[in-house]
Amino acid sequence: MKKGVSKFMVFSMMLMTIVSCKNEEKELADKRISELEHYVDSLKTIDEMAINDNWNQIASSYDKKSFAAQDALSSLDENDRTAVKERMDSYAVVYNEIKSNVESKKVVLPSADISISLSQRLRDRFFGAGKIGEDMSFGWVNKDNILKTYETFFQSYKDNKSDFSREDYDEVKLMYEALDNRKNTVEKEGLTSEDNSKIASIKLKFGPMFKVNRMGAKSRETANSKE
């Protein structure tokens, strides 16, 4: 009889632990989606001009909160996941409407001012249009996509390095350093040792290649200036 009671108590404790974990996962998902909802709601109260002027930062913050919500979503059971996903989708619609409005208002710079956008065009070439702004925060990069981001960076570099000027190399260096700074943060958020090793391998290949290519660009420009 005592053995039966003991087994029942152990089973009950295990069941309570499982329920507690599920509740914590649900609470975390609710918190993350609420943060996303509040952020999108706050955008409705901001002046349209302010949104346009600060769009890169706004988009970066949205991506970060959206990734966090998606991450929490994956730990829920199917029923809870479906309900939370519906909430996320509804706010994604609102955000995309704001984004479309911003993009429709973008002004094409006249040719006289095209030099202002050269750095941005290089960032867009590496990571996609609008992904990296002046602050180069890489806020959308997390433990799940940072390896892919490094791979994309390195491949873009190899594909385009023959076209780079010395100024382009300076901009590439800034992007690389900013991505490395983001990696320092992501490492504390659960970056796997396997991904970390693969990133280290990319960095080991990129460093010497970049140094040689940059020196070559400098030599070419010096030679051209003497002609």
Keywords:
single chain, mainly alpha
Characterization of this structure:
With 227 residues, this protein is mainly alpha-helical. The protein folds into 2 domains: 16-107; 110-227, no CATH class. The chain is 77% helix and 0% strand. It has helices spanning 2-43, 48-53, 55-73, 78-104, 118-127, 146-160, 166-187, 193-226. It is flat, with a radius of gyration of 24 Å.
Shape: flat
Report the count of strand segments: 0
Mean pLDDT: 76
Low-confidence stretches: 10-21, 108-116
Number of helices: 8
User: What does the main sheet amount to?
Assistant: none
Structural class estimated from helices and strands:
mainly alpha
Distance from N terminus to C terminus (CA atoms, Å) equals 100 Å
- The percentage of residues in β strands lies in under 5%
Rg over CA atoms, rounded to whole Å, is 24 Å
> How many structural domains does the protein architecture include?
2
State the helical fraction: over 70%
Q: What string gives the helices and strands in order? A: HHHHHHHH
What is this structure, in a nutshell?
With 227 residues, this protein is mainly α. The protein has 8 helices and no strands.
Please describe the topology of this protein.
Blueprint: H1 2-43, H2 48-53, H3 55-73, H4 78-104, H5 118-127, H6 146-160, H7 166-187, H8 193-226
Helix pairs in contact: 1-3, 1-4, 3-4, 6-7, 6-8
